[in-house]
């Protein structure tokens, strides 16, 4: 038999070895992908909350509906609201957080911006994902909203 007559292809051992390497790569990569996905969901929810806080502050500054405006915080969502001079609350859009992300507040369940000047109640909001990662949002009395 000549050298050129040798069958071409992979042996079973070579295929099993390649398959084993692929399985090891996937086993190592899946937890890293899950952690990355969880971290991205946390950041997305934090930016969504910051943008909603700034939007409600803008509504208060321009005096929309002659009301104060704010956000009411729950552990798995937040709700935009307005409050008229008689302290009557009108609730608007509810924004759900991504599954696995929760929020807590150190200074009460609501952040309220005062009509015309946009000042606010002090509040520190902490968002946490399932992996223990956190992001903190600070709202100070002047109305400044900061993502820490």
TrEMBL record:
Ranges annotated as spanning the membrane: 12-33
Keywords: Membrane, Transmembrane, Transmembrane helix
This protein's name: General secretion pathway GspH domain-containing protein
Organism in which the protein naturally occurs: Candidatus Buchananbacteria bacterium CG10_big_fil_rev_8_21_14_0_10_42_9
